Amino acid sequence: MSCGLSTTGVNLFLYNNKCLAVCPISFWANSNTNICDPCSTGCLRCTNSGLTACTQCSNDSSTIYYLHIGATTCSSTNCPDGQYISSSVPNYCQPCSSICVTCSVSAENCTSSNCAQNYYFLNNSCLANCPDNYFNNLALRQCTQCTTGCQSCFSTGLNSCTACQSLVNGTKYYLQIGVNTCDLNCNQGEFKNSTTLKCVACRSACKTCTDSTTCQGCQSVDGLAYFLTNNTCSVICPIGTYGEINNYQCTSCFAGCKTCYSSTQSDCYTCKNNGTHNFYLIYGTTICNLTCPDGTYQNSTSFLCLICSPLCKTCTTNSIFCTSCGLSSGGLPLFLENGTCIINCASGYY
Questions:
Q1: CA torsion sign, 226 to 223 to 266 to 317?
Q2: Picking from 222-226, 293-297, 316-320, which range would have the lowest pLDDT averaged per residue?
Q3: pTM, two decimal places
């Protein structure tokens, strides 16, 4: 049996001993034989034989077939790049998000490590910008993890950091001043800020410091020396100390010096007194001593050894109150009488 044209001139196709104008589902109209031929397994509707002439896919007893977007191909294995199999839309491939080269399960669940241009792959997602601890790797179109110690970076290595990291074990890294380097320590002249994880410059006079107000060592600035005392750098040291240029520290004077320029007894400017142990600056020297030498006396106001009168060998209280006598300007012996040195003793004395 064969079929020809309908009364209206339309080709008829043989199916189950009937001539039909339209073949049923799973068959296609073969114009060469005028027979409804079966579609290939996997095609619900087709325009020819084979899985590349399908317009709708079907399932067999154990296999699900999917129609590729923009094509007439049914596949039982996968959808092409840029498409994915959706459980909610049977037998049709669905388009991936434009940022994914390949995806699965959902349009945004990217499976290829290469993303669309200007997007970067991380954890099955293509991102416009990588999160903290990753950087946009232009060459790979991936988010590449920063080196341990960097919270944010522009490449690998501890010298490519823009912010530093505090690790869960308590280890902290600090961003060096003026460079993109994270390090466990700051350079000399800097201190660690544990809040910002940045190195901060010490005050200019501080060579080393622990914070903005606590110096550990001092230095010269523009030729002016600063000295350490009580965690502060100062040009002038406190009373009882002097600036030691070898270590830029305020160092204690000799015990009897109030002010000094070195630590020995002979390097005093002024002397110390406490009411019990008074020291006096020996005339013409920088020596502080508990007693004054012959020819001088202790001035309890200035704490200086002042010169006795030329007539006195020794004196006390003031320059003319002698306690012993020497020779006159002419070389004659002098004799003490009531704190005064005289050439001739009074009547009744010898």
A1: negative
A2: 316-320
A3: 0.62
